[in-house]
Structure formats: structure tokens, C-alpha cells
Automatic annotation (TrEMBL), chains A, B:
<comment type="subunit">
    <text>Homodimer.</text>
</comment>
<dbReference type="InterPro" id="IPR004364">
    <property type="entry name" value="Aa-tRNA-synt_II"/>
</dbReference>
<comment type="similarity">
    <text>Belongs to the class-II aminoacyl-tRNA synthetase family. Type 1 subfamily.</text>
</comment>
<feature type="binding site">
    <location>
        <position position="445"/>
    </location>
    <ligand>
        <name>L-aspartate</name>
    </ligand>
</feature>
<dbReference type="InterPro" id="IPR045864">
    <property type="entry name" value="aa-tRNA-synth_II/BPL/LPL"/>
</dbReference>
<dbReference type="InterPro" id="IPR006195">
    <property type="entry name" value="aa-tRNA-synth_II"/>
</dbReference>
<feature type="binding site">
    <location>
        <begin position="220"/>
        <end position="222"/>
    </location>
    <ligand>
        <name>ATP</name>
    </ligand>
</feature>
<feature type="domain" description="Aminoacyl-transfer RNA synthetases class-II family profile">
    <location>
        <begin position="151"/>
        <end position="552"/>
    </location>
</feature>
<protein>
    <recommendedName>
        <fullName>Aspartate--tRNA ligase</fullName>
        <ecNumber>6.1.1.12</ecNumber>
    </recommendedName>
</protein>
<dbReference type="Pfam" id="PF00152">
    <property type="entry name" value="tRNA-synt_2"/>
</dbReference>
<dbReference type="InterPro" id="IPR004524">
    <property type="entry name" value="Asp-tRNA-ligase_1"/>
</dbReference>
<dbReference type="InterPro" id="IPR012340">
    <property type="entry name" value="NA-bd_OB-fold"/>
</dbReference>
<feature type="binding site">
    <location>
        <position position="174"/>
    </location>
    <ligand>
        <name>L-aspartate</name>
    </ligand>
</feature>
<dbReference type="InterPro" id="IPR004365">
    <property type="entry name" value="NA-bd_OB_tRNA"/>
</dbReference>
<dbReference type="GO" id="GO:0004815">
    <property type="term" value="F:aspartate-tRNA ligase activity"/>
</dbReference>
<feature type="binding site">
    <location>
        <position position="220"/>
    </location>
    <ligand>
        <name>L-aspartate</name>
    </ligand>
</feature>
<feature type="region of interest" description="Aspartate">
    <location>
        <begin position="198"/>
        <end position="201"/>
    </location>
</feature>
């Protein structure tokens, strides 16, 4: 036994107990005849005292050889601390050391192992094992475990069965790029790593599993935007004999359970919004509804004058910034510069100050009178004291731009409180979306999503108008989960593949096994998948997923700690029947 | 809502209740004016009745269109069953149907969906989603989930944190063959899929995680022997500040917990045996100790006569088969044929019948007298009525042969009761084993295993004699877990790599990150990993792991259901900077 107690365990009630502790040297305060050393493990920290007067001189001398992050084991007696530290769980006591063993020495770490470290992102990633010793990272990983256990126990209690689906599957042309794995035993052939266990969970429904879940790694070989990982974790779920309402009910329950257990927040029924409404009101299919600034569409009240910019626009739309009328000209100019940044891409911004006295002052006073502007204020819900920001252009672009502005302003105004939780279901997503690059429709969710039966007739005439039985769960402006009711008959699935540009032969080659399965008694089914990394980070009140992943990869998909990927032996390539093509 | 109750739920107390059920048609018994249909879902089966007299004629007609495995939804009233079936949980009732909806039709399944199916292995694998509908497979998957939950909750309660380690890591030359993944973003480089999260869990210990576990997929690109899978699941665990005893204690606790919760079996302290003792006594490092037939080494009492076969042998060793003296000459000849099979490889077998009257009759009476044979009986523990089987040859080979014979005889004698559980710790494994093919020592467990400190001096002189702090947990003759105390200092790790034939440069290139980590304060640590597939199958009282895996691969590493691996696009290869080399 290396230890009798953890470093976070001892209290005043343990005074006079003989203890053995083991851990890392966190701090050393050498006062000559007295040496205070703080020892740390996962569970906390404890102050040790080496004292010439009260212990062997040799012990004190040895304690002076210690350095930060040395791994030590000590024996000693718990004593009362003279100057107690109420901020430290073990702050009432210290341990008078009677024996010291250095279990392992340590070089000076390349950054400080403190809550606020001096280490930059790169060095922290290279020495991730040291970074994990820091409370913020350690606590995030422990938090992730806790959320995982809550999810598993909740779903298990609700009759869901966790089933492991395979990692070595088949590459499919639909969706994102696959990672592939050459097969040694099947010459010239490749496995693919799953982007999600989608078809397998559907086959489990055909197999009568009824309620399935899995917390599972998924893989996408995409160019990595900030905060995306090539491997990520999903809470993957599927249910048979359900309609959308059943799925929303059970997973609203799961989310409510997590918020209640973790945050002590009890939230009543989650609000719902259609995709169309979300796009119209927030310019975004994952709106943050912790605050207002809803969109007001101004075409009717702004396209009757001689202002060509507005008259030529497909959409004129504004938001009211609370108490924004006090912005100086300079501040407003900066805001205009902000929306003109390439990342946002607006050509300009019209603004209206809603003065406290009920008058208006706008950047387009040349074209619009007080009566016009009063109407704008009405449409955008602006009150005296607010600032109306108006953008115009083609609908999709201008919505995205104004949505970005809305989020930026909310951030500046402190309206995005990470300890406030506002979930929202967005429903009735379009089935298909037009892809400019390939000039064809793509499945917005995936090719297995069921169109709404009443919209199937539109597939041939207005494919873009067909709505799907698809839904997203949004939390604080982040999509944390998304799913759909699936197609469960061969004819509809074939129709869907046809509209996605598959020939019947291609559909059969890729997904024949699924369409075959639909002929042997497939029940109606649907499901949802949660992005576990994202969910955990939001519940943890943080923006970035990277520090909730033990060993993340950088934006080039590299693990800089182990230095992977790496070259492999020629012999190994030969066995796999491949060669490099550089 | 597709259903008000499951198909396993209704009881006599529900009589007169209006219900809606959904599920698969299991059986149809058409009596003309009366049609009995049994409906099935994950939860059970319920008998439905369509009756001309009691329901609309049309309904009866429609019920006659049903076929096996059709997916249906029915509404009806729970009524008392005339001839109750006490073997069926819902056997007291049936449902008089008032409404029938066919949710999906089904082709006739290629094999019967019954507990005992007429489908062979190949067809069941191709239509695995139908196979999963069968109770034996479905129950196995549900059982696996239950064991997983028990493991997770036990470890979590004992302060273990589940941490997800990466799947895209680096290929290493040591151990089995890796599956590799070409990197698109890092030209000419490859990730490898982990054979185990070994180095990551050690880094988590260096990172202060203290107690780690993960139920995780691992990958080995090996030629597949029966009942091996290229991807398999491991319960992977590691602890810091521990000695072997601490690890044995906690995982004995886990195993005891599983046996108690699942089997209602309470087992006291698990017995322990050294590797040497196991090899000497059972010829095997994973002995099945549910029965005796321990080895008796006969060199001393069999090499003093003129029998050249024994005199030339490195080892002469026998077992006493209970009540085997009644075997006929023919039966014994068959046994001799059995040990001569190429899979066993013995050249012959000497036997001694221990007659009930205390005399002996052997196949080597020419060389040995009654006094000699009495000594053999004493050494092998044979009683009157037993049969002594003796093999001879080089130690390792003859032990393996006699071990195979011992298991075969136990099987024939019905001594391998799947509902009896006999766990055993095997400890003090050798650190290294000589590999004939490569003519060098390999790590028996893995290169991170700590030699016993008292044996380190032997590394240079008698490497084969160095024992490791390594242990296996054996259950009923199967290794279900194995682990070791790890090296935690750079010097010993470097020494180990040196003995495994790595140059310092190779060691640094492959495992530099780990050896670096050991310089920043690595605690003593060790761990264990359980083969989850195997553990579940043994707890489930079955021999084969395949039916505890939802979608297993065949012996060529193929998923015959989805037909993977498969060829991929030239375009895809190009992006990955590789081409085929056939």
C-alpha cells in the first residue's frame, strides 16, 4: 500500500493520526529550519511540514532536494495547522513528516502546473500528460466521465441497450470523407472507419432491438475548422415503433435529467420552433434563445422609397440592440467595419438610433422619415434607447450576416451567460439542400431521413420545399443533437437515392444490405445523435471542446505528443498491397 | 404512440383493458373462422385472436394476409385465455383484435426466427439483422449490455474515471500487426488503430488521473484463428501508486461482483498460482481448475529402466483419469489416435490401468514392474479404478500435449460445467520469451512490464529466467484478464528496449514520448485489461464469442452482411497519396 489516505482527504478529525501519503510536489516554501511542501494527487492537496525541531535533521535536508513535480511518498502525523486556510479542504491540518521516499524525480516542467498556467496551447499539447495534472483539464475529464455515466444510466434505466457496432466498415460516397483502412487479407480492398453507426443502428431496429444507444467514436476526414476533431464522440440512439414526438419526449427527458443532475437547473417543456421560423427569426437553424434581438423583416416598410440598396435587396432585415442608441458614431463605425469583415461579408449596415424622446436618427434619414423609422422600430421591437441595425441582400447571406452580428452583440452585452441554459427543439428541417459545387441536391441530414408523408409529392416538382421528419436539439446556440424519423420501406429509400443522384446500381452496391433488410419486416423507427464532446463542454460552461478531450489532435490532424501520423515501413505497405503515391 | 404496451407486458390483471401492440408476426394458426396470431417484440410474445364471431369479418380476412415477420400494429381488448400457457409470461391472456394495421410486409425469412433455427452460420451472418431477432442472440446482446453497465458502475463507484483515448495513433513495430489509416493531410504518413490504449493509459497515470478505465475497441491485424476478431473490446484499467497486490485486490473485487450479481455465485478469495507452478501442474498458463487430473512428473520413477522412449525424453509426465481403468482396448486406442492428431502432435501414449484390486496393467509391462507402476500411481495421484495416461518428450511440447488431453478428457467426462465458476490468479510470468522465428527475446506481456526488482540482475545472464510483475486472471480455463506493474523510470525502460533489440534511436523514435514522460514525475503504476467479448461469453455460459457481438466478422475479416472491406474510388486513393500494389 503506497498510501493510507489521498491528498484531499485529511480533516481536523484526523489530527494525531499516522498517515502515509503519495503524490506530486506542488509547492515548496523553504524557511531554512522549516520546510513546507504541498503534495498533490487527483483528490486534492495537503501541506507537509519538515521541521528541524520536530523531526530528524536528515529528513529536513532531504526535503530540500525536492523539486516541483517530484513524486514522493511520506509518512507522518496529522497535526493542527497554526494558520488555517478556509479555502482549502485540508486547510485545517498539516502533516508533520517522519519519513520521506522519493519515488521518482522530475525535470522542471516546461510550464507551470497551476490552474492558470504560463504554457501556450502548443507546448501544453506536446506535454499533454503534464497539462492533465492541472485542475481545469483534470476536472473537465472527470466531468466528462460523470456526464457519460449519467447518460448511460438514464438510457439503461429507460430500457435502452448499449450495442457496440463495428469500427471496420465500408466506405460510402455520401456525406463527408471517410478514413479508410487497407485490408491485408482482402487484397486491394479497404475498410472505412464509421462517420456514424447510422446503418447499423437501423439494422438493429430491423433486428428488433427496440431501443439502442451507444457512446461511440466516429471519424470524419475533413479539413479541420477550429474546434473540430477528426475523431469525435457521439451519443448515438435509435428507437423502433416511434414517431417524432416519442423521440423528442425521451431525449428531452435525458437533457432535462442532465441539466438537473449537473446544474441543478430544472427546465419545463423545451420550446419548439420550425426550421423556417428559426431562419426567419434568428437567421440561423441553431438560435441562441437566451436573449432577444429577434429579426424584423423590413421589406414591406423599407422598399417603398428611393433607397436603391434596399429596393434591390431580396431581404431587408434588422435587429434592435438593447440600449444601443448611446453608441457613439465611432462605436457604430466600428460595428460597421465588423460586419464588413470577410468572415461576415456584409457590404454595409444601416442603423437607426431610437432616441429616448421617441425620435429617430438614422444613417438613411435622406430616404426615410420619422414615420418610416417608427414602423421599423415596431417591426424589430425596438424601444426608445435601442439601436436598430439593418442589413440587406440575398436572403440566405443576409440572414447569416445578421445572425453573426446578433451573436457578436450578445457576447459584447454579456447576454451569453454560460450558466444559463436555454434548450430548443428545431423541427421540420428541409429534406434536401442544393449544393452549388456539385450542382445537385444533397440530403440535409442524411439519405435515410424520412420526408414528411404530406410532402413526398413535392419531390419531383419542388425538391427544396420537401420537409423532413428531422429535428435538432439546440442548447445556447449550439446544436447538441440531431436526428430524424427514418425511411423504413425499400420503395421510399430507392426514391430518395434516386433524387440524390444515385443510379439504382450504385444504390444497390452501396446500401443494398439496408434496402434488403427493409424487405424482411422493418419497423417504423427513428433516432438522434448527440455530439458528446460539445454537450460536455457546454454543460461544463465552456466554449471549446479541446479541453474536454484527453488527447486531442491539432488542426492538421496531428497528435503532437506521440507525433502521429508517421511514416511506416515499406514492408508494412507491401503486406497491405499499397504503395505511396506522392 | 405506436403501442400502449409491449408484447411481454400483459397479465391477467389487464383483462378488459383496451391495448395497442406493435411487433412482428411470430406464428399463425389459421382455423378458418378463427385465426390465432402470435406477435413478438424485444420484450416478449402475446397471442392475438381474430374471430369471425367476435370481430368484423373483414378483420379476420385481413389477418389471413399476414405472413411470418410482417410488422403489424393491432388494437384490441385483453381477454382471458381459455387454455392458459403457464410457460409463457403472457400465457394467461390473449388480445381480441378490433383493429389491424400492417406497418410493413416481410418476405419469407431465409431461416426460421426461432430459438433453434434452421439457418447455418453463413446465412445467419449475411442476414444478421434477422438473426438478432432470435432470442438466443438478442439475449446475449442484452446480457452484454448488462455486464458492461455493472462493470462501469462498479469501477466508477471505486473512483475510476473512464477516459476516452484516441483511435488514430501511431504504428509500432512491437507486438501484433497494426491496422493503419493513410493520412490525407499528412502526405505519406499513416495513423494506426490501437492494439490497446497501453501507452495512453500510462500517460494518464503520469498525468495524475490515478484510476483510469475504459471499455474500448482494440484492433489487431492477425490471421484469424477460430473465435478471434480483428476488432475486439477490452475493459482497460490502470492505477497509480499501486503494487501488484492492490491491483489483484480491486479486480478480484470486480470479478466477484460480476459473479455475484449475474450468477448469484459468491466466491471467497481467488486462489493464486505462479506461472511455473501452473505449467508444471497443468501444462498450461491458464489452467481450468474446476477439476483435478493434475500432472505428475515421472522422470524419477520412469527413467531407471530400459525403456528408451522415456529415457531419452526431457519430461515424462502423466495424469490420472478418474474411473478410466474400465476403458476398453479400443477406447484407449482411440485416445492414442487422438493425441497423435497433428493438432496435438504426440508420438504416442503410455497408459496404466489401475485395477480395482490394486494391481496394474500397462502398455509398458515389458519394462516396468508393479512396484514401478505403483510409484507412478502415487505421483499422479491415481486411485484404483483410474487410468494413467503418460506422455513424454521435450518439456514445452509434452506439457502442451498433455494439457490438451486433460481438457479433452474433462470435456468427455462432463467436468467442464459452464455454470460452475473457478477463477484463478496466475502470477510471476516470465518477462521475456524466446522467439524461434526472429531468434530474439520478445516481451511476454509487453515492453512496458516491470521486471521483478530482484531479477533485474539476471537480464544480462539468464534473460529467460527474469520474472515479471505480471499476472493473468483465469476463469474456467480461459484467460479473461491480464496485466502487470509497469516500468516507470526511463533507465529501466531503456534497458528493456535494449534487451528487446531496439537501438536507442529506434526506442526514441517509437516511444520517446513515453520515456520523456517518465522524466517529469511518473508515479509507480500498473494495470490490467479484460477481454470483454470473452468475459461476457464465459459469464453467459457459452464457448463462442461470436454470438455476443452484434456484427462480427468472419475468419477472413469480412463483414458478409455489408460486404466489407470493399474497393474504393481511384479518386479517394489519390487524395490519400497511395496507390494499389497488387
Amino acid at each position: 500500500m503506497y498510501r493510507s489516505h489521498s491528498c484531499g482527504e485529511l480533516r481536523a478529525t484526523d489530527i494525531n493520526t499516522e498517515v502515509t501519503l503519495a503524490g506530486w510536489v506542488q509547492r515548496i516554501k523553504d524557511l531554512g529550519s522549516l520546510n513546507w511542501v504541498v503534495i498533490r494527487d487527483r483528490y486534492g492537496i495537503t501541506q507537509l511540514v519538515f521541521d528541524e525541531g520536530r523531526s530528524a535533521k536528515e529528513l529536513l535536508e532531504n526535503s530540500k532536494k525536492l523539486g516541483r513535480e517530484f513524486v514522493i511518498q511520506i509518512k507522518g502525523t496529522v497535526i493542527e495547522r497554526e494558520s488555517k486556510n478556509p479555502n482549502m479542504p485540508t486547510g485545517d491540518i498539516e502533516v508533520l513528516v517522519s519519513g520521506l521516499t522519493i519515488l521518482n524525480e522530475a525535470q522542471t516542467p516546461p510550464f507551470t502546473i497551476e490552474d492558470e498556467t504560463d504554457g501556450g496551447e502548443d507546448i501544453r499539447m506536446k506535454y499533454r500528460y503534464l497539462d492533465i495534472r492541472r485542475n481545469p483539464v483534470k476536472n473537465n475529464l472527470m466531468f466528462r466521465h460523470k456526464v457519460g455515466m449519467l447518460v448511460r444510466n438514464y438510457l439503461s434505466t429507460n430500457d435502452f441497450i448499449e450495442v457496440e457496432t463495428p469500427y471496420l466498415i465500408k466506405s460510402t460516397p455520401e456525406g463527408a470523407r471517410d478514413f479508410v483502412v487497407p485490408s491485408r487479407m482482402n487484397e486491394g480492398q479497404f475498410y472505412a472507419l464509421p462517420q456514424s453507426p447510422q446503418t447499423f443502428k437501423q439494422l438493429l431496429m430491423v433486428g428488433g432491438m427496440d431501443k439502442y444507444f451507444q457512446i461511440v467514436k466516429c471519424f470524419r476526414d475533413e479539413d479541420l475548422r477550429a474546434d473540430r476533431q477528426p475523431e469525435f464522440t457521439q451519443i448515438d440512439c435509435e428507437m423502433a415503433f416511434v414517431e417524432q414526438e416519442d423521440i423528442l419526449h425521451i431525449f428531452e427527458g435525458l437533457t432535462r435529467h442532465l441539466l438537473s443532475e449537473i446544474k441543478g437547473v430544472d427546465i419545463a417543456d423545451f420550446p419548439r420552433m420550425t426550421y423556417d421560423e428559426a431562419m426567419k427569426t434568428y437567421g440561423n437553424d441553431k438560435p441562441d434563445i437566451r436573449f432577444g434581438m429577434k429579426f424584423g423583416e423590413l421589406n414591406e416598410v423599407a422598399q417603398h422609397k428611393d433607397f436603391k440598396v434596399f429596393n434591390d435587396a431580396e431581404l431587408v432585415v434588422g435587429i434592435a440592440v438593447p440600449n444601443g442608441s448611446s453608441y457613439t458614431r465611432k462605436e457604430i463605425d466600428k460595428l460597421i467595419d465588423w460586419v464588413k469583415r470577410p468572415q461576415v461579408g456584409a457590404l454595409g449596415m444601416v442603423y437607426v438610433k431610437c432616441n429616448e424622446d421617441g425620435t429617430y436618427k438614422s444613417s438613411v434619414d435622406k430616404f426615410y422619415d420619422q414615420e418610416d423609422l417608427a414602423k421599423w422600430a415596431e417591426v424589430t421591437g425596438a424601444n426608445p434607447g435601442d439601436l436598430i441595425c439593418v442589413l440587406s441582400g440575398s436572403t440566405n447571406k443576409v440572414r447569416a450576416q445578421l445572425s453573426a452580428l446578433r451573436m457578436e452583440l450578445a457576447e459584447r452585452l454579456g447576454l451569453r451567460n454560460p450558466e444559463e441554459f436555454a434548450p430548443l427543439w428545431v423541427v421540420d428541417f428541409p429534406l434536401l439542400e442544393w449544393d452549388e459545387d456539385t450542382e445537385r441536391y444533397h440530403a440535409m441530414h442524411h439519405p435515410f431521413t424520412s420526408p414528411k408523408p404530406e410532402d413526398i409529392a413535392l419531390l419531383d416538382t419542388k425538391p427544396g420545399d420537401v420537409r423532413a421528419n428531422a429535428y435538432d436539439l439546440v442548447l445556447n446556440g449550439n446544436e447538441i443533437g440531431g436526428g430524424s424519423i427514418r425511411i423504413h420501406d425499400k420503395a421510399t429509400q430507392a426514391l430518395m437515392f434516386d433524387h440524390l443522384g444515385f443510379t439504382p446500381e450504385e444504390a444497390k452496391a452501396q446500401f443494398g444490405f439496408l434496402m434488403d433488410a427493409f424487405e424482411y419486416g422493418a419497423p417504423p423507427h427513428g433516432g438522434i445523435a448527440f455530439g458528446f464532446d460539445r454537450l460536455v463542454s457546454i454543460l461544463g460552461g465552456q466554449e471549446t471542446i479541446r479541453d474536454f478531450i484527453a488527447f486531442p489532435k491539432n488542426n492538421s490532424g496531428r497528435d503532437v505528443m506521440i507525433d502521429a501520423p508517421a511514416i511506416i515501413d515499406k514492408e508494412q505497405l507491401k503486406e497491405l498491397h499499397i504503395k505511396l503515391d506522392l
